[in-house]
Amino acid sequence: MKKSCSKMKNQLLIIISTICIALFMNACATFKKPTTINEAPIKERALTKEANGIRASAAVVGDQEARQIFGIDLSRKKIQAVWIEIENNSDRPIILLSTAIDPEYIAPLEVAFYYHRAFASDANAALDEHLLNLNFPVRSSMKPGSRASGYIFTNWFKGIKVIDIDLLGNNFSQNFTFFAPNPDKMAESKAVIDRIETMFSDPELQKLESEGALREVLEQLPCCVSDKNGKTSAEPLNVVLIGEIYNWMSALVRRGYRYQELNPRSVFDRVQDIHTIKLSGGYLKGQEIIIRLWQTPIRYQSMPVWVGQTSTRLGGRFADTASAEVTLPMDPHVDEARDAFTQDIAYSQALIKIGYIKGSGLAQSTQTETSSKDYQYTTDGLRVVLVFAKRPASLEEIDFFNWKRLDDYR
Amino acid sequence: MEPWKSKISITTIFYSLSVLVLLLQGCATTTSTPVDPLAYKKRTESSVMGELTITVAVPTNSEAQAIYGVNLALKHIQPVWLEVKNDSNDTYWLLSSGLDPHYFFPSEAAYAFKTEVEKFQKLEFKNPIRPGSTQAGFVLVNLDEGFKAVDIDLLSREAVKSFSFIADDPEFRADYKLVNFETLYKAEDINNIEDEEELRQMLEELPRFTTNADDDEYGDPLNLVLIGEINDILPALVRRNWHATETTWSRAIRRTIKSFLLGARYRYSPISPLYVFGRPQDVGWQKARRTINERNHMRFWLSPIRFRGKKVFIGQISRDIGVKFTLKSPTISTHVIDPDVDEARRYFLEDLGYSQALAKYGFVKGAGVVNKEEPRVNLVGDPFYTDGLRVVLFFESRPYTISEIDYLPWETPSGFYGVSKQE
User: Fold this and answer.
1) Which of A19, A104, A142 sits opposite B289 (nearest CB)?
2) For residue range A216-252, what is the model confidence (pLDDT) as tens digits?
3) ipTM associated with this complex
4) Is B101 within the bounds of a domain?
5) Contact, B210 vs B220, CB < 8 A?
6) Across the interface, do B128 and A332 touch by the CB < 8 Å criterion?
7) Which of A100, A109, A284 sits opposite B288 (nearest CB)?
8) Looking at the 3D structure of chain B, how many domains does it have?
9) Domain harbouring A139, CATH code
10) B105 contacts on A by Cβ (under 8 Å)
11) Is A336 within 8 Å of B106 when comparing Cβ atoms?
């Protein structure tokens, strides 16, 4: 008894001295407001678009830049700031919807609270003030003829950041979508976008107008991706996205997808052009769906046609944690991911049409493919075709292709 | 000696609370009586819209275990049973994402229990629902305790049909029953309003702050007004991943202490009761954020006002950004709210803007301006400041895109930081 008592005393001493050290260290690390803030490089590389008298600019703030501007290390808490400027030369007041930029965006005082220190109320208050002042002026509407700029705090992701800007007016909305390079990985990010934009020259394009012709061509696309050696046939190509990249990327971002590098797969002798993942950064785990996409030379009613592969990792949110780019072992029931993706994106207000066609050609289910166990799957063999538009569409407005019914293939 | 003394007392509190938690846990072990796996079918609710008939039931945790053979609740999974009878000429598809944007795939749930996927697949609700046919099965969603708000969106070539239900959990919490909104007020107490200006006036006269049970201390500002039928409002919240939540009491208190002290992972902590019209919130809702200590939460109360026949609810929203000790709550811990409460109000408006159920919004005077320099405190001593307005949200059953949302030019939020930065 005596022994355990002295043991407890010792433990208590250790706890107390740890607290003291922690308090001491705390005091050293309180916030100090940066004396100068240099926003010039951010404004310089900001991307700009204009429509209906509204001009929007956006840029991602690098981790180093963030230290200089905010006086705190945002990346430590996996936060990434985005700079936004809106110039409203339209005749209507508009507001910025921060939830479009990141459905899980972080409010300025929420950010500040992460960096608050014990016994440092003055420094804490200064930090609150500093972040509030730098925040985009979201509280009031932007009047005609006004300009507003500032930062929105989002969840940190490496590489390209797709910034979806939705502006809301009375009976009106305006969308701008940007592929903003990360200044810490500038060259890489730029290369991705340049590559997509210059991939096909006009004579290479296969232009289609009718639904029938589209279906025929889409059914002839390869069944599956292959691994990076181009040999093993792997995951099935089970989605087709039709529309400008900005329109479907905006739909994805609104539904919580983020640009995320994934392990390479190959179609048309090249690795995926775009990869994205739905991954909740929050306390609660959510659906984890990955998508790899390749641009095709097909243009349907002058909209680009992309083909992709969607799946989840075996176990989904219950899988052991591996880095986000690792996508194997795959859940063999690949149709679940395809169907979940389709249903989810129906709520994005950017989906206008759905259809199903023969895809990997496995008309009967429970047929397994390939030599590698990691790639085995079962599927009904269908490929979902989704068309996106810039104008927002409600659930009611979603149309269907006049193709045969889904079960005709079953 | 003083600081030393206070540290000992904290340690003492910690140990005694831990013991209390363990004790309380001891009381809560469940007895294993056999459960009828079909018992949930006695609690079905049905709704007819045109040629579609929907029937819904939510099995209790033990019924779910009897159905699936595993304790789904352990992984915070809950099955919702539904049956769709389609007497129309169109094929319908159920959008499971509407029921829960993060619903579980059968294979994912089976993996969580390292069990065969076939059983899960067999029980699953299967699309499509052909003309003249009936489909029935389960969708696996995130577990809500107490009651479950269910939104069912059915899509066809011609139309979209939305149904909503609130299913009670008979196993859970005898001390809390879901409020019946239809019988809450006597007919003679209802205040029917047709005119928008009159509505505005009535809304401005509603209570400004929540109170404590004794109605002698003021809490958070009442900064929300929701107008619509429960069937229009629920789908909006569910689609945007809001979850109805229990009020802090009994088991909930035990769990909160446990999660605070032991860092146990609970999906949601309950929210404490605040009072308006002399009663605690009719429903509390929350939306999880980055850590267990961060969440948006919202409470609402049905008011006696009816606008063009629709119900008018008054509500309060704030955002938790961390935790602190308090002696003012039976759970000894409470969340620290973002003092800038208007930020959470704005978030709510934006979030529901994407729900396709928001038709119109505007602002009216509410709590009144509380300056940042002289903040008020809520019932647990958290400071807050506000421009004093309430956002008024009008919900409709037909889907609205963000381009179709109307703005009522009543009050204009001035913003504490916004104005000066605009050029």
Assistant:
1) A104
2) 999 999 999 988 777 777 889 999 999 999 999 999 9
3) 0.86
4) yes
5) yes
6) no
7) A284
8) 2
9) 2.60.40
10) 287, 312, 316, 331, 333, 336-337, 340
11) yes
